[in-house]
């Protein structure tokens, strides 16, 4: 038996701000919980193994580099256009020690959580 990723849970300070960013970045639908959290669901046409995203209020600020982060791929393969779109939504470039030769672009969401936009399918590396 094995397990698969089902959901990415992210502790955030401002759920509304992060819902606005991540729902637009991923094209996911939003459902709010009574507890102030929000769950983001992939579009109905997405494959069944696409994880959901749960944004929950942590009450604290992010400290240091994430120990893990999502690696994203543009749906149409155009990395430069997708990075520009994510920057317009509120992401920013993040320096985690990359050299410039990597097969990804490192960004951070509006609260500083790092993520990467991959330049190619990771299974092809």
Automatic annotation (TrEMBL):
Domain of life, per lineage: Bacteria
A molecular-function term among this protein's GO annotations: lyase activity
Pfam families documented for this protein: Glyoxalase_6
Region (Disordered): 49-76
Segments forming a coiled coil: none
Keywords: Lyase
InterPro entries tied to this protein: Glyas_Bleomycin-R_OHBP_Dase (IPR029068), Glyoxalase_6 (IPR041581), VOC_core (IPR037523)
Domain VOC intervals: 4-120
Record's protein name: Putative enzyme related to lactoylglutathione lyase
């Amino acid at each position: 038996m094995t397990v698969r990723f089902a959901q990415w849970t992210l502790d955030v300070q401002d759920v509304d701000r992060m819902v606005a960013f991540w729902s637009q970045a991923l094209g996911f639908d939003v459902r709010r919980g009574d507890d102030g959290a929000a769950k983001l669901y992939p579009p109905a046409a997405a494959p069944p193994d696409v994880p959901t995203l749960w944004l929950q209020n942590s009450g604290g600020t992010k400290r240091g580099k994430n120990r893990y982060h999502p690696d994203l791929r543009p749906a149409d393969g155009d990395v430069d256009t997708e990075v520009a779109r994510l920057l317009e939504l509120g992401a920013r470039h993040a320096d985690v020690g990359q050299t410039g030769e990597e097969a990804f672009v490192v960004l951070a969401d509006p609260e500083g959580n790092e993520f990467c936009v991959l330049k190619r399918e990771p299974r092809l590396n």
